[in-house]
Structures are given as structure tokens and as C-alpha cells.
TrEMBL record:
The gene is Xkr5. The keyword Transmembrane helix applies. It comes from the Eukaryota. Belongs to the XK family. Pfam families: XK-related (PF09815). This is XK-related protein.
Amino acid sequence: RSPGLCAVIHYLVRGQLGWFGLTVACVVPGYAAQLLSILWFKEDGHPPSRWLLVLHVLQLGLWKRYWDVLRTVAKAGGSARAREALTQQGDVCVLRLLEALLQTLPHLLLQAYVVVAVDSAGFVPGVSAGLSLLSLAWALVSYSRFACLLKPGHVCPPAAAILCLLLWRTGMLGTRVLALVLFARLYSFWVFAVAGVHWLLMSFWLVAQQTNIVAQPCRWRLFNCLVGAVYIFCYINVRPGPSKHRVAVFYAVSTHLFGI
């Protein structure tokens, strides 16, 4: 939370109320992950207490889930505990990825635009953007690591593989964000047209793949639209089985057609 908080204080002290309001607004979508976390606690048979609700209001609910994972791992003495720890880890990885996409990504785009187009010497927005980039990349790496653990016969990836994956995600996201910010600086609102075309193509592509992760038709369409928006910035595998061909198509379209 510190990068966003530092940016909020920075703009408030300098009297830049416009950027202050936009930075605060980036925090609001993150409550979707907190709300989903409360609902999952309730579905798991743990009615949320007043203290738990306060933690989620302060956007510390995921930290509570991380603490639960560490406590379960420390007490793990059998396969049942190990499966419980894996389930808890999966919940927090999905929630953290959702929070990163809804909250950290908009904050990253906003601070990167401030650094590139408004205040190139701004230290606080630059540091805030850099830390947000690392946070988003780590959320994607954590999700990929958990997906790897779910595969039969797979073990935990080594630290070197995690580091390489983190560097790859950071570089990929950094170049995407920089390309969009530079395009927005040069062509203003035309960036929404480019991103919109990218989003539509990716959404139609997901529909053509018949992803069956969501059963209900209306929720299935909404899911494809949401993932299509995520595909503007990065690829997330939402289907079981080998994904190298889908990744190749994604990067071919993103790189050669849009240049981002």
C-alpha cells in the first residue's frame, strides 16, 4: 500500500488536487477483491467478525489470508493440512491477482503517465510506478506458480525459475505500459481506440476458443470480456492443456498488429 499512499500524500502536499483525486480513485476498484474475500470466508464456514471486516475495509484482508497460509503451513503434519494450505494459497493468489489488475494496474498507468507527460523529474510518482510494476508482476508470477502446483506430477518451481519469470513479466508489462503512455502523450484519447480494438479482438478470440471455465452463458460472456481487457497488457492462461500455440498467436497479434 505504501506506493499509492506516498503518491496520494505527494499530490496533496503539492496541491495537485486533480492527480490526487485520480490516484485516490484508483484505490476504489481494489475493494472488489476485498468483498470477494469476505464472501469466500463466509462460504468456507467462517462468518466474518467485526475485526475481519475492519481489516477488509482497510484493504488488509489479503494480508490476513497470507497469515492464514503461513499458519497452516507451520501446522501441516499430513496430507489433509497440505491440501488445505494449497487451497488457501490458491484463494489468496487469485484474489491478489484480481486486486493487482483492478487497483495496481490503473495506478501504474496513471503514475507512468505523470512521469512521462507531466513531470519527468517527479521522484515520488516514478518510484510509485516502479513499485507498482513489481507488485503487478509478482501477482502474475504467484498465480503462475500456483497453476503449476496444481498440475499432476509438478513440483514447486525453483527460485531461479521464479526470478526469470518475474524479470520476464516485469519487462513485458513495463514495455506495454510505456508504449500505451507514450501513445497517449502523442495522440491523447486515440489511445482508447487502439486499446478498444485490441480488447475486442482478444475477447472474440477467447469466445472462439470456447473457454468453459464459467458455465452460465451471461457470466461466460462477461468473463471473456474481462479477460480480453487484461490481454491488452499480458497473457493469462485460462484453459487447461498446452498453451504455447495460444501464446504465440497472442504475441503475434499484440506485437505486429498493434506494436505494443
